């Protein structure tokens, strides 16, 4: 491949130009990634969400749908990211009293490239949706760190985050 790196796994070619990584020679294998994150809020805001009392509706239900939709469109949102036909996306929320909602998203497929970006995108959009739906009650919410918690499959092998943020 003229202009490509020897490994073929870089977004920069030998001329310094950005490019999409060519994954055509890689075998399709099962791949799964889980990302996590959180939103910190006033305790009263968490109570509104868990009690179903937010005027805009079911906050976590809407955030789940938004996260799944975003994961499916990651290739349109992140430059040079491959568009993928995901086999599944799951999004879970865990209220963590007194003042947090923890978010976990898992993306999976059988393909030639990983799904880490899809899982991370899902967590980010879920957090933004929670903020959007609750900002009238609490503009001081803080979207916390998000991170890749685990991945399986692919050439780089399995990964589990050694020490996720507290």
TrEMBL record:
Its EC number is 4.6.1.17. Belongs to the MoaC family. NCBIfam families: moaC, PRK09364.1. This is Cyclic pyranopterin monophosphate synthase. Pfam families: MoaC. It comes from the Bacteria. CDD domains: MoaC_PE. GO terms for molecular function: cyclic pyranopterin monophosphate synthase activity.
């Amino acid at each position: 491949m003229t202009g490509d790196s020897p490994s073929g796994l870089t977004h920069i070619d030998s001329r310094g130009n950005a490019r999409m990584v060519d994954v055509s020679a890689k075998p399709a294998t099962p791949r799964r990634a889980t990302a996590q994150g959180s939103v910190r809020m006033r305790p009263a805001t968490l109570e509104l969400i868990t009690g179903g009392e937010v005027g805009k509706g079911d906050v976590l239900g809407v955030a789940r749908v938004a996260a799944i939709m975003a994961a499916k469109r990651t290739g349109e949102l992140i430059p040079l990211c491959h568009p993928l036909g995901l086999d599944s996306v799951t999004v879970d929320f865990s209220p963590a009293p007194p003042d947090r909602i923890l978010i976990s998203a898992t993306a999976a497929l059988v393909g030639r490239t990983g799904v880490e970006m899809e899982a991370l995108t899902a967590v980010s959009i879920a957090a933004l949706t929670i903020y959007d739906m609750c900002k009238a009650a609490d503009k001081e919410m803080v979207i916390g760190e998000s991170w890749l918690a685990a991945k399986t499959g692919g050439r780089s092998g399995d990964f589990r985050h050694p020490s996720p943020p507290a």
